[in-house]
Amino acid sequence: MKPFEDTEKYIEFLERKDRDVWQKPNEIVSSLNLKGSETLVDLGAGSGYFSFRFSRALPKGKVIVIDTEPEMLRYVHHKAMSAGIKNIEPVLATYEDPKIPKNVDIVFICDVLHHVNKRAEWLAKLNLEMEKGDKLILIEFKEGKLPEGPPENIKICGKEMLSLVCKAGFKLIKEDSTLLPYQNYFIFEKQ
């Protein structure tokens, strides 16, 4: 469900400057109150839009960048190497397995869940790979016609999403529908 088949065009789409206005990446990173030494997974990281911001916020930590697209991981890896960034580690996932490594503190997922076909199974696998007490940050587009986001027919109803995530073994800690104009922001904890 990439908006473009061409990887370079897709990266341009993900990295466009106007996205900062409504995606509020710096506010999102700040809202996590990171200590700077955590290990954070950016799951479905794409071009690393959030990954590099997390990297700066985690000078003594690590950002594990996970995606199913090898071209995106190559892009992130090359950008990190070129900039001398040492705390970013790319990992290739599959559509069935998020591939969360051991010893992570936070799994961050932004605008990814609506791309997943077998959501209940995928979330159950994610839960198995995480450890008790790990945080899951989930951002997904709100329902309704919006100037940004996927078509209405592939959005996930908020109640359905909460039900899926909780049934997979996560507990809702915080819900914020006001931080972002077009998206809901949730923090869960693995039970």
Write the layout of secondary structure elements.
Layout: H1 7-15, H2 19-23, H3 25-31, E1 39-43, H4 51-57, E2 62-67, H5 70-83, E3 88-92, E4 106-110, H6 119-129, E5 135-141, H7 158-167, E6 170-176, E7 183-190
Parallel strand pairs: 1-2, 1-4, 2-3, 4-5
Antiparallel strand pairs: 5-7, 6-7
Please, could you describe this protein's structure?
The chain has a seven-stranded mixed sheet, with helices on both faces. It is built from seven helices and seven strands. The chain has a single domain (33-190), classed as Vaccinia Virus protein VP39 (Rossmann fold, 3-Layer(aba) Sandwich), CATH 3.40.50.150. Helix 5 links the parallel strand 2 and strand 3. It is of the alpha/beta class and 191 residues long. It starts with 6 loop residues before the first helix and ends with a strand. The model has no long low-confidence stretch (mean pLDDT 93).
Give the DSSP E fraction (strand runs of 2 or more residues).
Answer: 15-25%
Main beta-sheet strand count, sense and barrel state: 7 strands, mixed
Give the topology string: H per helix, E per strand: HHHEHEHEEHEHEE
Strand order of the largest sheet: 3-2-1-4-5-7-6
Provide the domain count: 1
The CATH H-level superfamily is Vaccinia Virus protein VP39
Per DSSP E runs of 2 or more residues, the count of β-strands stands at: 7
* Overall pLDDT metric: 93
What's the level 1 CATH class? Answer: Alpha Beta
N-end to C-end Cα span: 31 Å
> What is the number of helices?
7
Low-confidence stretches: none
CATH topology: Rossmann fold
| CATH architectural name | 3-Layer(aba) Sandwich
Radius of gyration: 16 Å
Q: What fraction, in percent, of the residue positions are helical?
A: 25-40%
What quaternary form is this? Answer: single chain
Structural class call reads alpha/beta
